[in-house]
């Protein structure tokens, strides 16, 4: 690569950075100009909108600083385009840097030697800070190319250089080297359900993240208000990927685990496999419905309680009528309860008044019979309309009854007001009912912490109950007040400007839409929020009940699902995408497959293929893009106490990189004892540590320079998923894999004995 070419590109790149600086200064300048306070409602709204936009722009400028321009494409028509992290225009308004997500940038990702499209050349521009340090060219001038040069992947040199880099513990974007098959995932149509099925290391996660950025760029109007949510398997995984989107200039995408989907609950604990299967099964929905019906018994006898020192009776007939009346209202349990309470109080009040009348009337009637009453009094008593009862009395009586604890207890026994948490905890405590229903595994004492598997059930319960969301209502009331203010303001605008053809309400609505999005955190705290798009990673782990909770949040069914059925670890997880998706979209979903592994060197992947062939003969392992790398090794040990030496040796071989010790439950205590001081488990902090001890399940989705699998036999036999966990473990390394074992190696690792 000539110095001239680098020098030339340096001039271009420096000029582009100059334009970026100018754009940043303009944005900062306009912030200062607007900074004055005061103004009416509309000025405030305008200022907020402009403020949001400025914030977004400044965040984007900061995000694109590193690697602003990373590519160039030369077309057959003689045109040259520069591709970068954002679009820039020159002083004349001409586009001079194309956003990687724009349609014009697409050939940068899709051109191959076999099918270069309109390109004659693609150039990767490598920069350090603002300095151009290297260029990588692929020339698509087929006629002049040797066949050997034609083979291979898009941007192979640039790609391999990226893949060889040590891992930092955080995923970074791959915007300069997205491969053609991944590009298809990134730019697939936004509507409907897209499943991205691919083996380990095929870039499912990274492609899904770029897709989020692409969708926001391409459909910003539709998506920035409704928002995009990414659901990942655990907080550590989210930490691992959290920098990718900001690095692409997108700061407002929500990230959540399944355990955080239900507002107010942060579940991280997982259930034992048998319980997970039960909690995840679709039959749970029926169980919850049945359990709730039991909370609303219809008595077959009259019920008499003592209220305010007097007996009062709810007849079986009145209880049944109240029940039927409430059930006729198509509403959740807690809302139906309001009708029920009203009817039961009315019945009790009536009974109470009857009793009172009887009590006062009886002595009088006796006198009447005996003829000891004046003619006037006799007339009053014989006229039914003159009785004491009237509407006012009835209302008063109902109020009094409602204040009475005995009446409350009666009603709560027949139709209690329930929160999802109370309802589920009561259900888990009801051993007899659970056993009779065939769900005995769910029984547990009250007060235990919620698990990830409980979250979809809480969500389901909230649907059935209709959460009495007082805070939400307060928010709504605030919203209503704001809305009234907005409409009043809009009316003023219409009067002053004389604009016609739009109502004040419509104008207010339009302005509200322009006011900009709520934050990702606010959306997550609102159980009823309907997202514009949801991306689910490691989606094979989601149970049927979890899918119900996810789909509830995206009524338009605009969803990207990425996963690998061959890596399913949860016994409640997916065995087939079609089966999981059928209840929501029937057959209306598309699948794209990723077939190339960018993580694991070929030597390690051959071992992974042996494992997969054994545990899931139908599945196909992806081909590894890198032939190079150290072959995997088996290290026989006398005991786990010898691990420190092995870890030290691995660390010495990989330099700055990171090591994961992936171990079985059986070995876990001995491994942690032998490697004292080494963090265990998936805490977000452990990502930054040079060595970490994990179970196979915990290592899912992550990658490390070197992996030591301690006790493969244990991982294999303990696995609730029939060995898929071992497949996950052997595919985590980017450079080196060592298998430490005490007894003989399992058959499926026999390749290592040679
Ligand atoms: N086009 C690419 N350019 C550079 N690096 C890439 C590319 N595609 C994937 N990678 C790298 O390959 C590794 C694996 O990617 P990723 O974690 O997205 O795979 P995955 O399919 O989600 O894997 P798993 O199923 O094992 O979790 C990451 O380090 C990622 O940055």
Automatic annotation (TrEMBL):
Pfam families assigned to the protein according to its UniProt record, in alphabetical order: UvrD_C_2 (PF13538)
One Gene Ontology term, aspect cellular component: cytosol
Claim: Iron is one of the keywords in the record: no
This protein's UniProt keywords: ATP-binding, Helicase, Hydrolase, Nucleotide-binding
InterPro entries according to UniProt: DNA_helicase_UvrD/REP (IPR000212), P-loop_NTPase (IPR027417), UvrD-like_ATP-bd (IPR014016), UvrD-like_helicase_C (IPR027785)
GO biological process: recombinational repair
Top-level division of the source organism's lineage: Bacteria
Residues bound to ATP: 198-205
PROSITE patterns assigned to the protein according to its UniProt record, in alphabetical order: UVRD_HELICASE_ATP_BIND (PS51198)
Domain UvrD-like helicase ATP-binding positions: 177-601
GO molecular function per UniProt: 3'-5' DNA helicase activity; ATP binding; DNA binding; hydrolase activity
Region Disordered, residue ranges: 28-47
This protein's name: DNA helicase IV
């Amino acid at each position: 690569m000539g110095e001239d070419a680098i020098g030339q590109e340096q001039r271009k790149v420096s000029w582009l950075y100059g334009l970026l600086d100018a754009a940043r200064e303009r944005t900062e300048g306009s912030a200062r100009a607007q900074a004055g306070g005061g103004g009416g409602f509309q000025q405030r709204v305008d200022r907020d909108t402009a403020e949001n936009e400025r914030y977004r722009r400044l965040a984007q400028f900061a995000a694109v600083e590193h690697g602003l321009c990373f590519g160039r494409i030369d077309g057959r028509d003689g045109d040259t385009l520069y591709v970068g992290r954002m679009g820039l225009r020159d002083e004349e308004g001409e586009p001079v840097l194309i956003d990687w997500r724009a349609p014009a940038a697409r050939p940068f990702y899709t051109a191959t030697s076999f099918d270069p499209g309109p390109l004659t050349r693609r150039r990767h521009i490598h920069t350090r800070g603002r300095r151009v340090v290297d260029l990588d060219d692929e020339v698509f001038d087929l006629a002049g190319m040797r066949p050997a040069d034609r083979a291979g992947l898009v941007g192979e040199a640039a790609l391999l250089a990226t893949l060889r880099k040590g891992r930092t513990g955080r995923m970074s974007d791959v915007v300069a080297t997205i491969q053609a098959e991944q590009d298809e995932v990134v730019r697939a149509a936004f509507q409907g359900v897209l499943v991205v099925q691919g083996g380990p290391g095929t870039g499912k996660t990274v492609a899904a993240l770029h897709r989020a950025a692409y969708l926001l760029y391409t459909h910003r109007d539709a998506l920035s208000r409704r928002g995009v949510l990414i659901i990942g398997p655990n907080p550590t995984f989210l930490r691992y990927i959290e920098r990718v989107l900001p690095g692409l200039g997108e700061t407002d995408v929500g990230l959540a685990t399944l355990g955080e989907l239900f507002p107010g609950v942060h579940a991280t604990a997982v259930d034992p496999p048998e319980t997970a299967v039960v909690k995840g099964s679709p039959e749970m929905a029926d169980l919850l419905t049945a359990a709730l019906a039991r909370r609303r018994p219809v008595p077959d006898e009259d019920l008499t309680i003592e209220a305010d020192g007097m007996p009062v009776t709810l007849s079986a007939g009145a209880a049944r009528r109240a029940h039927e009346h409430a059930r006729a209202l198509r509403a959740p349990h807690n809302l139906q309860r309001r009708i029920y309470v009203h009817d039961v109080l009315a019945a009790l009040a009536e009974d109470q008044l009857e009793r009172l009348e009887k009590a006062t009337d009886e002595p009088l009637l006796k006198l009447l019979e005996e003829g000891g009453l004046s003619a006037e009094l006799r007339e009053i008593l014989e006229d039914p309309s003159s009785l004491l009862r009237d509407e006012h009395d009835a209302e008063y009586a109902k109020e009094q009854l409602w204040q009475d604890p005995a009446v409350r207890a009666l009603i709560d026994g027949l139709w209690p007001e329930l929160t999802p948490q109370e309802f589920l905890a009561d259900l888990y405590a009801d051993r007899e009912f659970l056993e009779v229903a065939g769900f005995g595994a769910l029984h547990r004492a009250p007060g235990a912490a919620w698990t990830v598997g409980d979250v979809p059930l809480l969500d389901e319960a909230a649907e059935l109950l209709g959460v009495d969301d007082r805070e939400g209502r307060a928010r709504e009331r605030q919203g209503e007040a704001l809305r009234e203010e907005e409409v009043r303001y809009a009316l003023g605008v219409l009067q002053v400007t004389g604009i016609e053809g739009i109502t004040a309400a419509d104008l207010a609505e339009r302005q509200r839409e322009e006011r900009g999005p709520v934050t990702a955190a606010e959306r997550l705290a609102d159980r009823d929020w309907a997202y514009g798009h949801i991306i689910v990673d490691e989606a094979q782990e989601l149970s049927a009940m979890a899918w119900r909770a996810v789909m509830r949040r995206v009524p338009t069914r605009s969803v990207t699902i990425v996963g690998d059925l061959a890596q399913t670890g949860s016994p409640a997880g997916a065995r087939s995408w079609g089966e999981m998706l059928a209840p929501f979209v029937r057959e209306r979903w598309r699948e794209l497959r990723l077939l190339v592994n960018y993580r694991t060197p070929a030597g390690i992947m051959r071992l992974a293929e042996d494992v997969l062939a054994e545990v899931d003969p139908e599945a196909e392992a992806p081909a590894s893009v890198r032939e190079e790398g150290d072959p995997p090794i088996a290290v026989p040990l006398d005991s786990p106490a010898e691990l420190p030496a092995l870890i030290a040796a691995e660390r010495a071989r990989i330099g700055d990189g990171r090591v994961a010790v992936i171990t079985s439950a059986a070995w876990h205590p001995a491994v942690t004892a032998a490697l004292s001081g080494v963090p265990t488990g998936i805490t977000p902090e452990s990502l930054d540590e040079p060595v970490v001890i994990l179970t196979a399940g915990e290592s899912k989705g992550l990658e490390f320079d070197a992996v030591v699998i301690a006790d493969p036999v244990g991982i294999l036999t303990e696995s609730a998923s029939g060995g898929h966990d071992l497949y996950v473990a052997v595919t985590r390394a980017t450079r080196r894999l060592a298998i430490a074992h005490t007894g003989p190696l399992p058959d499926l690792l026999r390749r290592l004995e040679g």
